[in-house]
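Regression report. Comparing outputs from two consecutive submissions.

Submission 1:
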Amino acid sequence: MSEALLAADEPAPFRVENADGSAGILFTADHAGRRIPRALNDLGLRAADLERHIAWDIGIDGTTARLAKLLDATAIFQTYSRLVMDCNRDPDVPDAYPTISEATPVPGNAGLTPAEKLLRRQAIFDPYHAEIEALKGQKIYIAMHSFTPVYLGVERQMQVALLYNRNPRLSAILAGLLREEGDLAVAENLPYQVSDETDYGVPVHAERSGLDYLEIEIRQDLIADAAGQAAWAERLARLLPLAIRKLAIEKLAIEKLGIEKLR
C-alpha cells in the first residue's frame, strides 16, 4: 500500500502512547510531526522551512505527551508533516496538499496527480484515522493544536483558544475555567473555527459519533521549550477534569429536568 512512498526503515505514520489509559480521554495531535518521506525530497523546501510552523504544530507533541501521562489518557500523534498531507482536512479538498503555506510556496505539492494524492492518503492519512477510530470508543475526544504568534504580519494576542462546531458546551466550560486563572487571554473560535469544510478530526470522529470534545489551540511561543510544555500540561491536567465534571453535572441536571417535565 505505502511501499512507494514510505521506505521500510521510515517511521510509521503515527505513534500511540498509553493505549490502555484509564482516563476516558483520547488526545489527538494531527500536526505533531514534521518528517517528510525521503521519496518526496523535502517537497523542494529549505531545511529552515521545515522547522517553522508551516510544517507542524510547534510544541504540541511534547505538551500532549506530558498531558496524557499526567491524566493517564491515550494519545495518538501524527508523524509526518502537514505539508505532505494535512490530517485535519478532508483528503478531497485542495488544502489537504497545500501548494502555499502562509506565504511560502511548496514546490513538491504543485501539480499533484490524483494518483500521487491517493498514494499519500493511503500511506499517511488512512492509517492514522483508522487508528483513531479503533481507539476512540466512547472517550472524550480532545484535539490538540498550536498556532503561530504572528501570521502574515498580524500578531495574535490570545494565548489559548477553544474551537468548536456543533457542540460548544465543553469548550465553553473550559474557556471559563481558563479565564478564572486570571493570567490568560482566552479566545473561542479564534484564530480559527471548526467546520466540516476546514476540519476533519472533530466533525468526523467526534460529532458524527456524538462524542463530547474539545479542540485546544495553544500559542506556540508558550510551548516552544520543555518548560513551557510542562507548564501547560500541568495547567490543563488540573483544569480538564474539572471541566469534564462540570459537563457531567450539567447533563444530569438536564436529564432530571426532562424527567420532571414528563411527570
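Submission 2:
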Amino acid sequence: MRRCLIHALPAVAMLTSVPAFAQDAGCPPGSWFCEEVPEEALPDGGAAQAPEADVEEELPAPEERPAGRRRAPRPPRGTRHGAPPPVVVYQPPNQGQAPQVVIVTPGGQPPPRVVVRSTPAVPPAPPPPPPPRRWRSEWGLNLRLEGASFGSAEGVAADAAMGGLGLSLRYRPVPAFAIDLGVDVLGGIDYNGFKRTEIPLSLSGMIFLNPRSRVQFYLMGGVNMSYADVEREVILASDDPQVAGTLSTVNEEYEYFGGHGGIGLEFRLSRRVALNIDGLAFIRNRTDERATQYPEFVDPETGRTTNVSGGGLFRGGISFYW
C-alpha cells in the first residue's frame, strides 16, 4: 500500500503542475493543455490576465533610466551641444516669394535652425548668330537733279549757268561694284554766253568702299558722249550793205566725246530706297565735222583756238532698287 502511494504522489504532482506551468509560460490559443478558468476563480476577482506576448511593457522615460545602462547617442558631426543639423532649403531663382518651410520636431526638442540658400541663376545661353545674308544682285533706277560749273577762268560769260535732270539704269552684281548707264538733259547759257541744250550719255563704273554700311562712300568714273544744240549770234558779212554787219541767230550742232570721274555718298534709307549726292569732273573734245573749220573756243588776245573743254557737275538724286 505504501509502495502504491509513493508511486502515485509524483504523478499527482505532475498533473497539478501542468496548469500552473501553462499559466506561467503562457497558453497559446487552442492548446490541449489549456484549461478555461472561471472568472470567480481568478485572483483579485478580475478578468483573466493577458498573455505576456500582448502586454506592452512600459519603459521608463529617458531621464528616468539609470545611468550607465545605455549610452546616449552621439550627436552628428558638425552640430553643437547635440542640436540637430540645420535644415537647408534651396530656393530656385526668379521666384518672387520665399518658400514656405514647415518643420515638425518631437516634443521637448528645440526646432532646428533653417538656412535658406538661393541657387545661383544660370545665365541663358546667348542666341545663335543670325545666318549670314547672301548677297543678291541688284538693279536700280536713279533719278537726279544737277547743275554745271564752268570754273572762274577768264573769258567765261557773266551769266553762264546750266542745269537739268537725268536718270540712269544701274546694275550692281556684287556689293562693292556697280555699272551705271545714264542720260541727262541740260540747258542754259554756256561758257561763251550762248544758249545751249545738251544731252550727254554716260557709262560709268562705281566702286563702293564700304558696301555694308548705311552711308556708303563710292568712287565713280567712266566715259561720256554728248550732243549739243547751240544758238549763236553772228555778224553777217556780205557785199550787200543792208545785210553786212547785221546780227543773225545761227543754230549749230556739236558732238563730244570724253571722260569723267568723281566721288559721292549714298544714304540707304531702306533696302530698296537710297539717296545720293556726288560731284563729277569731266573733260571732252569736240568731234563733229565742223570742229576743225569752226573751233568752239577762240582766245581774243592770242587768237588761239581749241575744241577741248571741261567743267564739273554736281548731282543729287534718289535711287530705287529691286
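Expected: both submissions complete independently.
Actual: both completed, but the second showed a warning that disappeared on reload.
Relevant detail on submission 2: Residues 15-25, 45-59 have pLDDT under 50 and may be disordered.
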